[in-house]
Design brief:
The protein is α+β, with helices and mostly antiparallel strands. The protein contains twelve helices and 19 strands. It has two domains: 273 residues, 3-Layer(bba) Sandwich (FAD/NAD(P)-binding domain), CATH 3.50.50.60; 89 residues, D-Amino Acid Oxidase, subunit A, domain 2 (D-Amino Acid Oxidase, Chain A, domain 2), CATH 3.30.9. Bound molecules: flavin-adenine dinucleotide.
Length: 409
């Protein structure tokens, strides 16, 4: 059990990314305290947030390293093919996983299950102490430690503070790290449907003037829908009775997958892009959406967060094995150099895709339709996109190469 006041690392936010971070650090025998604002029972009985995450092959490998893959795999639907089309046009792009290997691009897994599985894993780790209902009152850092005090009077310190409190991070603000926030004026309507025809593991992205409609394969002949509209229009659609919502969705899907049944009420997620100006500050690093919140058009947001986890775990494990300070500036700079480029590139790609496709400007429509036809024939570029979807591109951290976290291990 960790020392009551001091641990090696403090993590603020025990969500999808914070809980994976704690579990990864524990595997390197680093002591961790997680301060989570939510109540423990709400995490264990997560409100179904409607979302089903596209988890890349690379993230699945991270889950294997963390020992949580077996329960997730049982509920995972492999993504075998991806089809991208412009509404009303013949042209489309078809990505077949067999062009880049035997494994699927990734898997569709319900968010609630990922969160609960990681929560259980984190709580079961030696050296991880999780404090729920944690309301942070103050943050303080100096040359020797990062300290956090809670409103209930408890205070904690560590060599390194990791901030994982999500896209609308209040801790980022308290640390004085500016962030660029862009309102897309789009809302993603998310729901699960059962359908008459099989999906054959195909993920479909249909571009409509107001935003993409994604139809993502799930187990048991179900699919997750991420249907993006302007925020005003989405509010009208979400206010409809369920049968009218289902009828509108069926029309938008043009009969693809046959008759539909809505499984539970749809949820609305207003979409924003958030990019922190820097990912590090004295003894502190931002991870997950607190550093980079991107458009869900490519289903890559939390995958970027898991890559942060793999990189940070490696840098901390290496520093630990060499007896170095875990909050040293050199480690933090290394993390920022490694992660910022990758996250910014993905952010720019998703932003451009959204701008190019989510509009009805006639010249752009012509260009993108011609572009889709040309793209379909550009095999090397298509292959690069497919590799990016698997998550195995760029400078890979050890966890993604199935190597021990530190070179000394
Ligand atoms: C519609 C939609 C679909 C998406 N689909 C995909 C997909 O298919 N694939 C994909 O990779 N990504 C997807 N994403 C992105 C993904 O959901 C996010 O990247 C992910 O939730 C980020 O995880 P996180 O842990 O960084 O933040 P969060 O999930 O926001 O977790 C933050 C945690 O911090 C806690 N917290 C907040 N404030 C405090 C505080 N002050 N003190 C203590 N704790 C605090 C919260 O309670 C929470 O537990 C999607 C996003 C949307 C909106």
């Amino acid at each position: 059990m960790a020392n009551p006041s001091r641990t090696d690392v403090l993590i603020i936010g025990g969500g999808l990314v914070g809980s994976a971070m704690a579990t990864a650090l524990a595997s390197a025998r680093v002591s961790v305290r997680v301060l989570e604002r939510g109540a423990r029972q709400t995490v264990y009985q997560p409100r179904n947030d409607g979302r089903v995450s596209a988890i890349s092959q690379a993230s699945a490998r991270i889950f294997r390293h963390l020992g949580v893959w077996a329960p997730l795999e049982a509920a995972a639907e492999p993504i075998l093919d991806i089809r991208v089309a412009d509404q009303g046009a013949q042209a489309h792009v078809h990505f077949d996983h067999r062009a880049v290997g035997d494994a699927p691009f990734g898997y569709m897994i319900p968010n609630g299950l990922i969160r609960q599985t990681l929560q259980e894993a984190m709580e079961a780790c030696d050296g991880v102490d999780v404090i729920y209902d944690a309301v942070v009152a103050d943050l303080d850092r100096d040359a020797f430690r990062a300290a956090v005090s809670l409103e209930d009077g408890r205070s904690f310190e560590a060599s390194l503070l990791l901030v994982a409190d999500g896209r609308y991070s209040t801790m980022r603000e308290r640390l004085g790290i500016p962030a660029r926030l862009l309102d897309y004026d789009q809302t993603a309507m998310v729901c699960t449907i059962r359908h008459a025809k099989p999906h054959h593991g195909v993920a479909v992205e249909l571009f409509q003037p107001a935003g993409p409609l994604a139809i993502l394969p799930m187990t048991e002949q179900r699919s997750c829908i991420v249907w993006t509209e302007t925020t005003a229009r989405a509010q009208e659609i979400l206010a409809l009775p369920e049968d009218e919502f289902t009828a509108m969705l069926a029309e938008a899907m043009s009969g693809y997958l046959g008759a539909l049944e809505l499984l539970g009420a749809p949820y609305g997620y207003p979409l924003h892009l958030v990019q922190a100006d820097r990912y590090v500050a004295q003894r502190t690093a931002l991870i997950g959406d607190a550093a980079h919140g991107i458009h869900p058009i490519a289903g890559q947001g939390v995958n970027l967060g898991y890559r942060d986890v793999a990189v940070m775990a490696e840098l901390v494990a290496e520093a630990r094995s060499l007896g170095l300070d875990l909050g040293a500036w050199s480690l933090l700079e290394h993390y920022q150099r490694w992660r910022r480029f990758d996250a910014t590139a993905m952010m720019a790609t998703t932003d451009i895709l959204n701008r190019l496709f989510s509009n009805d400007v006639a010249p752009l429509r012509l260009v993108r339709r011609a572009g889709l036809s040309a793209f379909e024939r550009l095999t090397p570029v298509k292959n690069w996109f497919m590799l990016t979807a698997t998550g195995f591109t760029g400078d890979l951290p050890r966890m993604l190469c199935d190597e021990p976290l530190s070179s000394a291990a």
